[in-house]
């Protein structure tokens, strides 16, 4: 089923994107591709990451990713993932933001996403009407903070590449600067001007991205904290709760429930 899902997703721009449901294994990837329509991707169980030239968005089971039409993107799935893909016709896309994003999934939105990807259309126009409800819900929803932007400056990219390779790396901004040949002040300025956040905030978001993958794969909260660079579980729990909106323990409990 995973191979069939991948084959259906990786289509040319003038074809319709995949819509429906599939179970995909932990670590499964879909290579960069684009669609003539917009696309919503929801992990009813598991976690997914959507990457574009503007950065990476991670969506656990209480988030949905949005990719506008003709925007090149790739996906990676963490844990055994019940993925739901929904095409959004171009005439409805104008109600949503014009860049990739992640939105919170309300109970109403979750049930509507499941209904559209679980069962065939029983009455003409029923799917379109339900899709309009989904778009209305998302148009009023706040964007979430699970976006990890990527830099253009070579010095800053060298620094972020080192952190991508080892998110638990204990280095300071000054230490990174010495490694990549830039001053601490220069790197600090670049983090703010190019990425819109501090070095600490960017690294915390990167570590949360990796933590979501570890937790989805069944690693304990304590082991996840250590693997991702936190010195103690309590500081990890605080950071995770601030970014994701729930504790890591609750996140794992919700995964098991779904």
From TrEMBL:
Pfam families: HTH_18. The keyword Transcription applies. Residues 157-254 form the HTH araC/xylS-type domain. InterPro entries: Homeodomain-like_sf, HTH_AraC, RmlC-like_jellyroll, RmlC_Cupin_sf. It comes from the Bacteria. Keywords: Transcription, Transcription regulation. SUPFAM superfamilies: Homeodomain-like, RmlC-like cupins. This is AraC family transcriptional regulator. It comes from Streptomyces tauricus.
